[in-house]
Amino acid sequence: MTQQTWDDVGGLLPYDEFHAASDAIVTNIEQVIEGKTATVRLALAVLLAEGHLLIEDVPGVGKTKLAKALARSIDCSVRRIQFTPDLLPSDVTGVSVYNQETHDFEFRPGAVFANLVVGDEINRASPKTQSALLECMEERQVTVDGVTYQLQTPFMVIATQNPIEMEGTYPLPEAQRDRFTARIAMGYPDPTAELAMLDGHGAVDPLSGLRPVSDADTVRRLIGHVRQVHVADAVKQYAVDLVTATRESPDLRLGASPRCTLQLLRTARAVAALDGRDYVLPDDLQVLAVPVLAHRIIPTADAQLARRTTDAIVADLVHRLPLPHDRKRSPYDTRPQSGNGRAPFEPRRP
Amino acid sequence: MIAHRNLGLVAAGATLLASAPLSAIFASWTWLVQAVIAVAAVAAAAALARLGRTPLWVQILAMVGGLMLALTWLFPSGAELLAVLPTPATFGHFAELLGSSVEDMRSHGVKVPDTDPLLFITVLGIGGVAVLVDVLCVGLRRPALAGLPMLAIYSVPVAVYVDSVPPVPFVIGAAGFLWLLVTDNVDRVRRFGRRFTGDGRDVDVWEASPLSAAGRRLAVVGLAVAVLVPLAVPGMTVGLMSTLNSGVGSGGGPGFGGSPGRVDLFAALSGQLNQSQVTNLVTVTTTEKDPFYLRFGVADDLRTDGFRVRGPNGRRVNDELPDPSRRSLPGVERTRQRATVQVSRDLNMPLLPVYAEPVDFADLNNNWFYDPTLQVVFSNRENSRGREYSFDYVRSSYTPQALRRAQPLPADLPLRRQQTATPDVPEVRALVGELIRGARTEYDKVRAIYDYFSEDNGFSYRLSTEQGTSGQAILDFLENKVGYCQQYAAALAWMVRDAGIPARVAFGFTNGSRRSDNTLTLTNRNLHAWTEVYFDQIGWVPFDATPAYGVPGSTRSAWAPDVDAPEETTPQGGTSDTPDETDPSTEAEQGPNRFEEGADPGALSGSDTPAAQRPRWPWLVAAGVMALLLLLAVPALRRLALRRRRARPAPAVRSVDAPDVAPSGAGQPVTMVVTDPDRARADAHAAWDELIDTLVDYRVRVDRTETPRATAERLAREPLVAHTDAASAARLLGRAEERARYARDPLTGEPLPAALRKVRGALAEQAGRRTRLMASALPPSVLYRWRTAIADTSSRLVNSGGQLRRRLLRFSPRRLIATRPR
């Protein structure tokens, strides 16, 4: 098992090369998931941002299909874990077994020892099992019996789950949620796409025909490219403002973590690169705010009673947070007061 | 109970403070000592009565009793028991004092001496107010009402002299009233129990009560209203409106209102002489053929700021008056004459115009008094408006020889001491010393100074000079040698005083230019001032130094001839009714002067108003409109300047060094990017700022949460949907700004100004007419910017003010009290 250290990914790629590689992956996945370009690109962006993806939606909209399509498009090691209520942590991380021949304990790697780990129905396992993922997702290593094993690069966990209101699910702990870079919802396909799906998927499983169009090396180079995308100070400031806003919002009991800020900016770099830019825009952060922030925060009881979802709260914050700007240059805001009568959210700056 | 006793003491103290204004009418401070005793007696009686928890009416009786005891002790009739217990004889004495106090009030001008009747009525009044204040504050708990009796004390000096009651005593009185209110309110608030701040803790002793915040705000608003409203109300004396209207000339008749003591006759004089309107003030008929000036006032109190009018003091006009004809002297001719004066309704003053040395009056009631020293007729309660009266007077004329015989006054004579005092102005003193060198007699000295004010010495008459008779004004006059009667009279009097001879300034009327038989009609243009000099044994002798040509109806005498007239025509008490009578050789010079003065009789009655008198208000209005237009144009100009500045390409911050980037390989084509990135960035920012300002101007929504890209997309989607060109121009601007802000390298070489013009044109096209007009006349972007700047500044000020206050509170002495156990 070749251990790829985390830092020997390359620099900026030529625009065409990056574009060709990323587009190939997107196009490949779109053979399976139709009419969901944005979602697919976001999933790819999370991969390139070295993050983990949580796909949350009602059953039957193609969560697992997206996860598998992404895994298959890249020629790398893929493992799948079906999270069942009786799954044990050692099933995930691996276990030391006694080898009678060597008279010694031997480590049997678990499912996480792969480039892509697809965790299906993650919230059906008990929190005990779920927490087995905590170390590997953040630190990209597994410690069993006092021995630490490094995971491969790239490493990405793609988990699917049903909304927590569904029967037989355990909500993910906050620490676990915070380790997922983004949570995306699939959403129902639009009628045309659904019709096309009926035509195409009626006879054969399109997944079976999917061939890898990229490999781990290419992905590593893509990741290297993403890391070099320029982020202006104003954009960093905006990211901090956005995260601070969640911490100060009266609707939220728990705001976003500093880890969230990091991942937000990383994903924004990936999105910018996928968009063909070598610099991040506040627009990228605005697009990513809901997928990256919404699953980490906890609304207050009042907001819950008012049936305000975390998505809505984050979207509202984005809508009210002014861009960092030079006040001397443009002091204006001639918007009519927003419908709920709230003033624009002013971040506290020293 | 402690609070009540405390409040009673405060009430007594406040009453005493409120009586401070009386210091303005008393010459000494005896009244205060007696008032303190009376108020203390009242307060003590009240405190004793309250100790016994008696009902209110008993307290009142006790206080009145205390006052009675104090009065009995202070003003004894000699028949008291134990010096303080009044007897019927005491009350008789009180009644007597009351009666004669009325008399004293009439006969004494301010400042009044310490006479028993006046002191009695003062102490009685203050004591009464003390009783009232105590009852209102402590008994009825209505301290605000106590302000009324306190104000009543203040109204006494106000009634006595109108225009210049010193402000300090009033401030003291007001402070007393405030003290009373504060004490009462503190007591009231303490009764609520614990004070709290609203955030769950008690108010510290050193902190201002949160209740006071509303009070402070109300006070500020009240103060602002009290100061601003009178300025805007036209009826008030110094209203802004009346100041603006002054160019038109007020229609009201002239008046020297107020009490006889404190009128600034100089100011009134110049005001009257400068009026464009001519009003008949006095008609006088006399048996004398060539009367000297009719006079009504005297200024003989010379201070550093000039001659001042003193309060007159005298006896009733209907009493027997001193008759100068009893003193006969060689060379002094005295004849008894009779004159009838009719004052028009336009002349309103507490003085009556009479000829010098009246001896017998008819048709005047007992409210009129005659001051034999000042030789003026005055009243403390009546005025001259519409009055008609006649009187006998003694006309004296003197030969120069008779005046020469007058000896210098003894140096210790009070009259001389008082009437020769001058502020020290060395230049004047030196000039006087030079003029009177070699003059042997008093008269010669006076003549030497008098003759100095001649045309030969360069003196001329002009009405438009600054008024004032202070030392500096006199110096200026002697320097410039231009002035009118006020300066001439004051300068002569000043210099004669400097020569050690008593002199004063008299006010009155010249003989005017409208005369039929023995009847003179005198107008405001005939108002005049001249000098009177005192000679031993002879009395006050008039000298008029003002050039005769400037004064219609000017009269000269044998002892004070016209210094400008040629020797041979020296008139013997002659009258120059009109300036035309003067020497024709000076006519040419007088012409323009007369025109400037507006004192020409012809000009007065005629229709040709001098140009200088034309109303100024059209100019003022025009200037105001211009200023308003300019003010309104300021935002538009500012917007224009902003746009021009942004349209100009930013100066190159860093010049590209061409040789360094010169192509090394000959065949390799090198595209040289000439545009400096910093400059391109600045240009993009400028273009974007201009776009945002344009949006604000055309009332397109501007959103600070939107990125440049989103803004450009919105523009393309909403207002510019019909203008494809403009939409792509907007997108270009958005891209340029976005690159300038967020990318490593800005967008270069794009025609941003052209794009800007396109967007602006499209926006203007689809905006309404009103919006377009506002965008060019009063650009909302500039106004918005200013508003934001003002709001920022004010909030910063408020913040720093709050910080300062917190810092200062650390030094508050009340903080020390906080450690005191409560």
Describe this structure in words.
- The complex is a heterodimer of chains A (350) and B (822).
- With 350 residues, chain A is an alpha/beta fold.
- Chain A folds into 2 domains: 12-201, P-loop containing nucleotide triphosphate hydrolases (Rossmann fold, 3-Layer(aba) Sandwich), CATH 3.40.50; 228-329 and 343-350, Magnesium chelatase subunit I, C-Terminal domain (Helicase, Ruva Protein, domain 3, Orthogonal Bundle), CATH 1.10.8.80.
- Helices cover 41% and strands 15% of the residues of chain A.
- In chain A, strands 3-6-9-1-10 form a 5-stranded parallel sheet. A two-stranded parallel ribbon of chain A has the order 2-11.
- In chain A, helix 10 (233-248) runs parallel beside helix 12.
- Chain A is globular, with a radius of gyration of 21 Å.
- By secondary structure, chain B is of the alpha+beta class.
- Chain B has 3 domains: 2-196, no CATH class; 265-583, no CATH class; 642-648 and 674-778, no CATH class.
- Chain B contains 26 helices and 20 strands.
- In chain B, helix 5 (116-139) packs antiparallel against helix 6, helix 21 runs antiparallel to helix 22 (724-742) and helix 22 (724-742) crosses helix 23 (752-766).
- The longest helix of chain B is centred in the C-terminal third of the chain and has 31 residues, at 617-647.
- The model of chain B is unreliable at 236-262, 568-612 and 652-674 (pLDDT under 50).
- The A-B interface holds A 230, 232, 234-235, 277-283, 286, 318-323, 325, 329-336, 344 and B 685, 689, 692, 696, 699, 701-707, 709-710, 738-739, 741-744, 781, 784-785, 788-789.
Low-confidence stretches of chain B: 236-262, 568-612, 652-674
- Describe the main β-sheet of chain B briefly: 6 strands, antiparallel
Low-pLDDT stretches of chain A are 1-7, 337-343
Q: Could you name the CATH homologous superfamily of the largest domain in chain A?
A: P-loop containing nucleotide triphosphate hydrolases
Summed over residues and divided by their number, the pLDDT of chain B gives a mean of 78
* Global shape of chain A: globular
Taking the sheet with the most strands of chain A, its summary is: 5 strands, parallel
Q: Work out the radius of gyration of chain B.
A: 40 Å
Largest interchain contact: A-B, 28 and 25 residues
**Rg of chain A, Cα atoms, Å:** 21 Å
Strand and helix order of chain A: HHEHEEHEEEHHEEEHEHEHHEHHEHH
Structural class of chain B: alpha+beta
- As a percent range, the share of helical residues of chain B equals 40-55%
Q: What's the quaternary structure here?
A: heterodimer
Broad CATH class of the largest domain in chain A: Alpha Beta
How many beta strands in the DSSP annotation of chain B? Answer: 20
The number of domains of chain B: 3
Q: What proportion of the residues of chain A is helical, as a percent range?
A: 40-55%
Q: What proportion strand of chain B?
A: 5-15%
What is the overall shape of chain B? flat
